[in-house]
Design brief:
2 copies of one chain form a homodimer.
Chain A: E1 5-6, H1 13-17, E2 36-37, H2 44-54, H3 67-70, H4 117-120, H5 136-146, H6 149-156, H7 163-174, H8 183-188, H9 196-207, E3 224-226, H10 236-239, E4 247-249, H11 271-283, H12 289-300
Antiparallel strand pairs in A: 1-2, 3-4
Helix pairs in contact in A: 2-7, 9-12, 11-12
Chain lengths: 326, 326
């Protein structure tokens, strides 16, 4: 990680974990605070601006797509597509990961090519198979024409409508997209129970070794691990290094039941299939149907409360439309 | 109008209009209550269900488009496109009208082919250039798979997940999409002023006869009027009758400054151009630049407060994605 992070980690969680018995090592309640980069402090106005930008179709060449088109906050930060639909109905080559809790990841994208949300947010608007805006300059010009100038200036100071600040605001908004109070979290805090099947699943994932990577309260070690499955070479496709061959981010299990289909290539249509495949490919284990059902029952307890978002009204010029293309 | 309406009209408005002087006849504050069909009474649960359905991409074959894709509540119920982008990037042949205040219109669509919002809402999901779902049956099956059954049953009673009830819920939600407290409304109520230019424009539209059609507090007489402009024959394209040739709905001026481009064919890119063209084609009047500017200044005072909408979390099955196609 090149940029310094102020990690406001909720260490008090470990206090909570003691409240329920039989929780495997490391598992715990979703943290309530997120790492924030020193050069992009949070503020209410910045989050509100970032929310507008997250829902802003002016960031796409066509005027049709916003961040929310593929990372739909109505459907757990994903679109449930194998590969998302982009500009002129093109499709990308990787499954869109959720933006929920993404503030916790050490790096962004399946291949980790963006260190921070600030870096990630600069990608899709310019990606020709996603939003297909021609250049940073064009995106900024469109936002200016829409009337974003004063909103940026209120947050970042004079003449601050830049592509970098756009990304900063979006990242600040995304840092609010947490999903607390999953049944598992309530169970850990001693506020509720989970089913016997879920408890068996919880123990099973520890016993067979899933939690060596899907570890901690986030159920990811935030590392990049070899998943030799399909032609996509993952991190190597970015670095070109053989040592990075087929490395992919270890995805969090948080809300995993709501983010089908699964894997970087969206090839697993169901959570059952994803669990079975991971056990086989990563651990050399053939799970029984009952074990799969138990593990899935446990994973379903990790669905938290979706963030409440007031749908933003976007700035627009009076009396004329923005200049959409294609 | 075939179906009976309970018209709960805000007649008390006329009391308010007396508070400001110099308001041309008929102009007044936006009503605060809307006509509601006897067979689809409003309820909080129905509105909430309708909101989910309004934002529901499961109603499109691809899983990409919802009502909100083209009637975006973040941008005044429109997408600011000449013709909206639909399934596989097809485009329709008419400009998408706003859903805001649409509860007040006597009939829906540019050609009035849907008597009520309930009828209108049944069109786009099945339209091959819009959401392209194959059949009502498929739409209902998809909603059922998503988990809407219990939500419908709470609102409409047992086994009530039907396409008709889907449309009823969407219509109920749309009846909440009002935009009160425009600067003009505040002016009429004696709570604020509008510019001198706007006042001149207000008088001008009455003097030259715009308000013979764009009349009353809604600035539409809710009629279908000849607008012989382009090849689209309007109502005749539905009825086949010569007497209906080139009849189009008289659009409301409410929020018109935010819904560019203009006309059924989206051919007027700016409000200035739309005003100039309407005066010429409909009234045989060539307006001066100053008159156009005054009228536009007046029209801009008709932009109200956009409705506050909490973005809904949509029902989804755990552990698998809905079966999107194409």
């Amino acid at each position: 990680m090149k940029k310094s992070l102020i990690l406001i980690s909720s260490l008090c969680l470990f206090g909570f974990s003691a409240m329920a018995t039989g929780i495997p090592d490391g598992m715990g309640v979703l943290p309530t605070t997120v790492p924030v980069p020193a050069d992009n402090p949070m503020s209410e106005a910045k989050v509100e601006l970032g929310k507008k930008l997250y829902f802003e179709p002016a960031l796409s060449r066509s005027g049709q797509f916003s961040c929310n088109s593929c990372h739909n906050l109505g459907t757990w930060g994903v679109d449930n597509q194998k590969f998302s639909i982009g500009h002129k109905w093109k499709r990308g080559g990787r499954n869109a990961p959720t933006t929920l809790n993404s503030a916790f990841w050490s790096k962004q994208f399946w291949d980790g090519r963006a260190p921070l949300l600030e870096d990630q947010a600069k990608g899709p608007p310019l990606n020709p198979v996603e939003m297909a805006t021609v250049s940073e300059k064009e995106a900024v010009a469109r936002l200016k024409e829409a009337g974003y100038g004063p909103l940026f200036n209120d947050v970042f100071g004079k003449n601050s409508l830049t592509y970098d600040n756009m990304a900063k605001a979006i990242a600040a908004f995304e840092r609010t997209l947490l999903t607390p109070n999953a049944p598992f979290d309530k169970f850990v805090r001693g506020e509720g129970d989970i089913s016997k099947a879920a408890k068996r699943g919880m123990q099973k994932v520890a016993d067979i070794g899933c939690t060596s990577c899907h570890s901690g309260p986030l159920f990811t070690n935030n590392e990049f691990v070899n998943f030799n499955y399909g032609e996509d070479t993952g991190v190597k496709s970015v670095t070109g290094k053989d040592e990075d061959d087929h490395l992919f981010r270890v995805q969090s299990w948080r809300n995993v039941a709501m983010t089908a289909p699964y894997f970087h290539d969206g090839s697993a249509a169901t959570l059952d299939e994803a669990v079975q495949t991971m056990a086989k490919v990563q651990l050399g284990t053939k799970l029984s149907k009952k074990d799969v059902a138990d593990i899935v029952a446990f994973l379903e307890t990790l669905t938290g409360e979706a963030p409440e978002v007031a749908f933003p009204v976007l700035p627009r010029p009076a009396g004329h439309a923005l200049n959409w293309r294609d």
